[in-house]
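Hey, can you fold this one?
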Amino acid sequence: MIPRLAPSLLFLLFTLLTQSAIADRPHNIFDDDWTPPKPSTTPRSPTIVKPPTPKPEDPATNVTPPTVAPKETAPLTPPTLAPAARLAVPTSAAQAAVRKVMKEVFAEQLADRSISARRKLTTALLAQADKSNDALVDQFVLLAAAIDSAVDAVDLPAAIRAADKMSEKFEVEGLSVKSEAALHIGPKSVSPDQAAENVIAAIELSDELARVDDYVIAIRVCSALQPQTAGSAPLRSLLQQHIRDLGAQRDAAERFARDLAKLSASPNDPAANLAAGKYVCFVKGDWENGLPMLAKSSDAALKTLAAEELIREKSPEATLQTADHWWDTSGKQAYRLYRSSLIAHAAAIYRQLLDKSSGLQKTKIEQRLEEASRLLLETQHYVPVIVVEALIDGASTLHVTPGGIYWKSHGAAKPGLHDGRNELTFVNGVSWKPAWSQPGDRGDDRSNVFPLKIGDRLDFQAVVVGCADAPHTEKIESRDPIHAKLDKDEFVVNIPDSQPGAKWYRVRIFHKP
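Sure. Predicted structure:
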């Protein structure tokens, strides 16, 4: 009999295996050829399979299908341009020649291997890659170097940005590149604000992996980041809860495979259709393939509702009724993922009706969409730490509310706007381009809200952890000190910035101990 290992021993074993894999990694992109990681052996596309078509001799085919009107022929539309084909990865010889020049150009930066220096180097490499659209081998090598530099800098968001740029242009499996970077970044020590950015980025990456059924790597990515949460109980709780959610989704995917096998033998099996339909609709969000399963399921309410939606030619009133039914059903779901999926589906139907409605009906739809945004925000995890980075040129305030953050400008340049530039704001490493209510780069104005689940606890404090000419650096240049206070139901960070010239501010907002 094989003895069972305690959870702590299992985690220790995983950590040792992860560190062993990291030890096998080439030491540095600047010393070795970089080869894109091979795609995962697990699926890279959702395992959504349309329900089998019953054979004519199958007695179960006597079940009366839902009434579906003939689908009209779609009107002709102008052909859309196909996305540009991605380029082949440059040869090793071509990369080596460029790498030699790159090492000469960045010789001074390469000499400093500290985390802060590597962050500056990553920013410089990404900027140079953006300027190299006409020198494709240069661009590939620079992006590869940026990925590796970001790993050394323990900066997962930057590694992901570089990998996304690379996979958009070249024949590289982006998810594998990002996953490998996350696994190598994970066990390293880092400051609290950097840990928060890395954990949020890892959670988003794991969700991306889960969407293509790669739960094994998704869980490994999040588990690898656990050492970085050692100094923050809320951050650790956030990551552990997400790992549990991924495990539940993985188990559901395994059950779905068994249900599909049942449906292959008996396409109208009510129990198998219910289980498979709930997974396809509620977990994967593929309502087109999942609804026919629910329409043959053993759940009377879901069966009726799915059949109702499958009737294509309906009046706006009937479509609104369908959205209302899904909305009402969402409130009866105990599982958080199912509840949010049903709300999102009802909201999608409401949006289709918004421009076709008027009067009280339109007001009702607008209220439902606003409520859906709030409810979907509530299904997210609370964000324990907020790290905001933006280009500031003049007095601005950052407002933290229970549902998200927004900017206000006070006569000077709006955050991100400076001398014709329109720069992103980064929130926990996620890029956000604020939308302003008034035209122009300057003046008193308010941006839209970047949604975050922050909650009613607004006893924050704020510190500047970076202020420099370039983003993603830890250098702090002398500027006016920031001030922060609780103002009614908002936590307001005041950035005076009375000195001339724009600077990239990096502000960490966290709960008081």
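The first strand starts at residue 385 and ends at 392. Let me know if you want another pass with a different chain boundary.
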